[in-house]
Amino acid sequence: MHGTAPKPTGQRDPDPAQTVQVWDLPLRLWHWWLAVLVLVAWVTPNVHDGLHRTAGYAILGLLAFRLIWGFIGTRHSRFRSLGARLRATPAYLWNLRHGMTGRYLGLNPAGTAMQLALLLVLIISAVTGAMQVTVRFFGIWWVEDTHAVTSNLLIPLVVLHVLGVVLVGRLQRENLARAMLTGRKLLRRSPRKETTPANR
User: What pTM value is reported for the model?
Assistant: First the structure.
């Protein structure tokens, strides 16, 4: 419209008029920077210790920002519906077995549970990593073991997170990774059977 040429047949990009802004720019930048820094921290211990520590301190800063943004950020960045969605997670996962994803503009219950798990593990890993380089906690076994366990736990959690994004995206026929790049999600409902409101 407005004199523009029609989109070619098979064009997958959604019409902006059919999408809504969900993820704000600070949250999107936080998400992708955190992904990069976690990868850097994962591959650098005992090889590039200076870079590893720098990545760890940067992750601590990002985590502090996320906790603050969870209270003062835009609607879908806040933690206000955390409890309700966590309680809904078992039923959501059960329905997911039958291809029923519901329609959530923000995080769905499974995504909320994964967000909480990743934040908790990241916080413990980053804090114990910082503790290891202090005089008081250097060489303390439980600090080192906790850091190692939580750091190793991050990778399967990240893999599970990515698989969940791909699965729900396929069921809803929407590119959820692209939504975290653009900040916009489709307004339309999923073509599959749904059990939850679209405006959450």
Answer: 0.81
Q: pLDDT tens per residue, the chain (200 residues)?
A: 444 444 444 445 545 558 899 999 999 999 999 999 999 999 998 889 899 999 999 999 999 999 999 999 999 999 988 889 999 999 999 988 888 888 788 899 999 999 999 999 999 999 999 999 999 999 999 999 999 999 999 999 999 999 999 999 898 888 888 999 999 988 765 444 444 444 45
- The DSSP secondary structure of 42-64, one letter per residue, reads HH-TTTSHHHHHHHHHHHHHHHH
Q: Report CA-CA distances (Å) from 15 to 3, 6, 159.
A: 16, 12, 30
* Fold (topology level) of 16-186: Fumarate Reductase Cytochrome B subunit (1.20.950)
8-state DSSP, 193: -
Residue 21 DSSP SS3 = strand
> Is 185 in a helix, a strand, or coil?
strand
Domain limits of the chain? 16-186
Q: What is the DSSP letter of 14?
A: P
